Amino acid sequence: MTRPVLLAAALAAAPVFAGEPTTWPQWRGPTRDGVFTGPAWPDRLTDASLQKLWRADDLGPSYSGPIVSADSVFTTATVDKKVEVVTAFDRATGKQKWQAKWDGSLTVPFFAARNGSWVRSTPALDGDTLYVAGIRDVLVALDTASGKERWRLDFVKEYGTSPPDFGFVCSPLVAPDGVYVQAGGGLAKVDKATGKVKWRSLTDGGGMMGSAFSSPVLAKLDGRDQLLVQTRTKMAGVDPADGRVLWSRTIPAFRGMNILTPQPVAPDGVFTSTYEGTTQVFRVTANSEGFAARDGWSVKYEGHMTSPVVVGGHAYLLGRDRRLACFDLAAGKEAWRTEERFSDYWSLIANRDKLLGLDSRGTLFLVKANPREFEPLGSTKVAASETWAHLAAAGDDLFVRDLTGLTVYRWAR
Fold first, then answer.
1. What residue spans of 50-95 are helical by DSSP H?
2. Spatial distance between the Cα atoms of 104 and 314, rounded to a whole number of angstroms
3. How many domains does the chain have?
4. Rounded to a whole number, what is the distance in angstroms from the first to the last CA of the chain?
5. Residue 180: enclosing H or E segment and its boundaries?
6. Where is the Pyrrolo-quinoline quinone repeat domain (predicted)?
7. Is position 90 within any domain?
8. What residues have CB less than 8 Å from 50, skipping those under 6 apart?
9. Residue 143 resides in a domain
10. Cα dihedral sign for 102, 166, 68, 410?
11. How many whole angstroms separate alpha carbon 387 and alpha carbon 338?
């Protein structure tokens, strides 16, 4: 049961399509790169910078980031370790509009128990349809007005693959011609209206070492639209039309922990960073045989779970060592790394020359996107429980999903 409580009133490659700065419709925002183009943020962040608008409590745990439309906020949860729940709230008041529920539970391996056995994937919003990934490799399409189920695709039943040991982690990518997900032991393009699979690619069987931790993005590299897909073992460019693999490169990582979302960088690069691996850029170019991905540059810096944001030709990233780092993408070198160590994870959003980072301990940081040095601009506590779900920003509002509830804040102008 929820109890909304009303309180006091580049260098990045161009995405194929974009949303509005007043909404947050998918993983990492409208352009799926953590870049926010709404109102400018203040120059300092203090405890007085944010006004709490409302909070919904007792939602159940989730690592799924909130999705924001013009008038609604959507969040997911795993309740009583057996039921998956999607809840829609009125964006202005926090009043619950509807809930959708289905049986769905999975216990992760014992060595990953601290990461929890609950829903992980962030949904995707496309007009009047919300696409939600259940932890047992199930993709569900819901009507945003009523919560009514339009269709359901169970990859395990459909293809006989092993259930993902760590759950359905990939966040759906919605494009004009379909929904793309890394599920069912591979990459799939799904018809938005029917839930039928149009094609599958990069199949690996799922299970312990096959189910992806990353999420795909769309980019144009050397004049060609392609899906950038990071599996547990490789990075690949895939033709969105037919699933044909245009190029691929092996990405070594401990236990296949290729987690972060790959970042396209102009004019022909792909940035990534891996656990017990390197931070690197591949250069993707067309040739007589199709496409080739050659080494651009690499440095010894281990990524982990935080996906990078790019501002002014520099990538900002929190690594396995829990230190924030800045990389000069043109020079191919580390510009700086903090002495301070933070928590294990930040969800990062960039807005003009500033970064917001929500750490996994419920603290929000404001940082200047300064390529010369680390320049903190303040911090404030925004949640009492852990915050592994990605921060969302829409208009003047920030949406924070912690392990027990959802809080909406507004910048105090």
1. none
2. 41
3. 2
4. 33
5. strand 178-182
6. 84-338
7. no
8. 364, 380, 382, 398, 409, 410, 411, 412
9. no
10. positive
11. 22
Q: Looking at this protein, which amino acid is placed at residue 166?
A: F
What are the residues whose beta carbons fall under 8 Å from the beta carbon of 93, sequence distance 6 or more? 4, 6, 54
DSSP code, position 305: S
Could you give the count of Cα atoms lying within 13 Å of 276 in the half-sphere of its Cβ?
A: 7
Rounded to 5 degrees, what angle do the CA atoms 341, 342, 347 make? 140
Classified as helix, coil or strand, 376 is strand
pTM over 0.85: yes
Q: Residue written as tokens 């039309």? A: 241
One-character DSSP codes across 152-221:
EEEHHHHH-PBPPTT---PPPEEETTEEEEE-SSSEEEE-TTT--EEEEES---BHHHHS--S--EEEEE
Residues 322, 280 within the same domain: no
Strands 50-56, 354-359: pairing kind: unpaired
Domain that includes residue 285, residue range? 217-258+261-302
Half-sphere exposure of 311 (CA within 13 A, CB side): 24
State residue 287 phi and psi, 5-degree precision.
Answer: -145, -175
- Look up tokens 């004049």; give the residue: 223
**Which is nearest to 200 in space by CA: 167, 235, 229?**
229
346-351/50-56 β-pairing: unpaired
User: 118, 168, 134, 131: which is closest to 386 by C-alpha?
Assistant: 118
CA 271 – CA 63 distance, rounded (Å): 24
10 Å Cβ neighbour count for 145? Answer: 11
> Do residues 291 and 331 both lie within one domain?
no
The closest alpha carbon to 94, from 407, 387, 412, 411, belongs to 407
Among the candidates 302, 329, 359, a domain finishes at 302
pLDDT tens per residue across all 413 residues of the chain: 444 443 333 333 434 434 458 999 999 999 999 999 999 999 999 999 999 999 999 999 999 999 999 999 999 999 998 999 999 999 999 999 999 999 988 887 766 667 777 899 999 999 999 999 999 999 999 999 999 999 999 999 999 988 888 889 999 999 999 999 999 999 999 999 999 999 999 998 766 666 788 999 999 999 999 999 999 989 999 999 999 999 999 988 877 778 899 999 988 999 999 888 899 999 999 998 889 999 999 999 999 899 999 999 999 999 999 999 999 999 999 999 999 999 999 999 999 999 999 999 999 999 999 999 999 999 999 999 999 999 999 999 999 999 999 999 999 98
